[in-house]
Amino acid sequence: MRKIFILTVFTLICIGLQAQKQKKYDVAAFLYPAYAADDPRLRPFWPHGIGEWETVANMQERYPGHYWNRKPLWGYINEADPTVMAMEIDAATKHGVNVFIFDWYWYDGRPFMETTLDNGFLKAENVDKMKFYLMWANHEVVNVWDTRLANIDEHNVIWTGQVDRNEFEKICKRNIEKYFKHPQYYKIDGKPVFMIYDVPQLITGLGGLVQTIDALNWFKEETKRAGFPGLDLQLTMWSINVNYSGVDGSRTHEPDKDFVKKLGFTSSTHYQFVHFTNVNRDYMEIMEDVKKEWARIDATFDLIYYPHVSVGWDNSPRTGKSAVVKNNTPENFEKALRDAKAYVDAHSNQAPLITINSWNEWTETSYLQPCNVFGYGYLEAVKRVFK
To answer: Which of 145, 321, 329, 335 has the smallest C-beta neighbourhood within 10 Å, fewest atoms?
Structure first.
């Protein structure tokens, strides 16, 4: 009898370990689509025709002797080339990254920086290996992309991220038809996931909080009319997006922690650690604050939170100076990923989604792609945790 009991316990342990081993995670990396050639709308910011690779390539020319001297092991690739993107999809999925969150822009009445998604990713021969969804980066465009002007301290708004109701509906209908209906678009419970970056810009453009609630409700209903069970509207979680008094100038009362729910957001994640904590310190110190923030959001907001891990932060390629995350080695990044994995495992009632900043934010020094400093270290870290 004792042998049978021991064998039963051993079998249950093995089954449990096997189930844990086989659990799948959706590891989603933000993809910044500015590393593209032959996109004429990029030329005013990066005249050499290679997108923001120009900022990476001429860093030492602009700031001789500066400590930042990163080089991509894959070279200054054109990510709007489907052959190049096929290589990237292979590398990403091999290491456990199975979703790209494309930063998606709309300025001056039309899309901006869309060639990496349309010409590169969606035309890659192996696109069926990878899911994607959109993060509407509806922020203002100022001088920061143009290195000739980036270090000038002025708030020179080139494009606003605000749109009125007519333009909002045009954007939503276009994205539903062009992207939501694509078989590789990432969905949770059948609902396309759509992330919005800047809530104040959205509310100001649409004319106020009441008008924004109405517009987002319309968006959800339009998504249903297209044949989906609904829309997973995802909030970029940072202070400007959750402060009621800060996003609607006509309101004067105290911030309302529930207003993001009133707007119709159903889930949230972060885009970058720099949005909510002091990043000018050691990575593991930052992670202590990050875990506290995850717990605070989970306890405070009535919407699902998906844990986020940033690789790092250093914006000096653009401006020559920056707050800098210290000691963000692949080994420490791996520890952060294990914390995110533990959070997902403890929230089994939600999708197993973790977001990472980012696949390729070179000029913010927060990228997974291989470089001359860490090689494939960050990708290998993802692989060890999730693959």
So the answer is: 321
Pairing, β 304-305 against β 267-269:
parallel
Confirm or reject CATH 3.40.710.10 for domain 30-386, answering yes or no: no
Tens-digit pLDDT profile for residues 198-218: 999 999 999 999 999 999 999
Residues recorded for the chain:
387
Among 231, 252, 62, 20, which Cα is nearest to 146's? 62
- Bridge partners of 326, per DSSP, are 282
Expressed in percent and rounded to 5, the helix, strand and coil fractions of the chain are 45, 15, 40
Q: Give the pLDDT band of residue 142 (cuts 50, 70, 90).
A: confident
Q: Which residues pair with 107 in a beta bridge?
A: 110
Whether 138 contacts 203, CB under 8 Å: no
Better-scored residue on pLDDT, 355 or 152: 355
| Joined tokens for residue 201 | 């810009």
pTM higher than 0.90, yes or no? yes
- Percentage of the chain with pLDDT > 90? 81
Question: What are the φ and ψ backbone dihedral angles of 248, each rounded to 5 degrees?
Answer: -135, 100
* Residues 229-255, mean pLDDT to the nearest whole number: 73
DSSP H stretches of helix in 244-315: 244-247, 259-263, 283-300
8 Å CB contact between 366 and 272: yes
Instruction: Give the E-state strand segments of the chain in sequence order.
Output: 26-31, 99-107, 110-112, 131-136, 187-188, 191-196, 232-236, 267-269, 304-305, 308-310, 353-357, 360-361, 366-367
Distance CA 210, CA 146 (A): 36
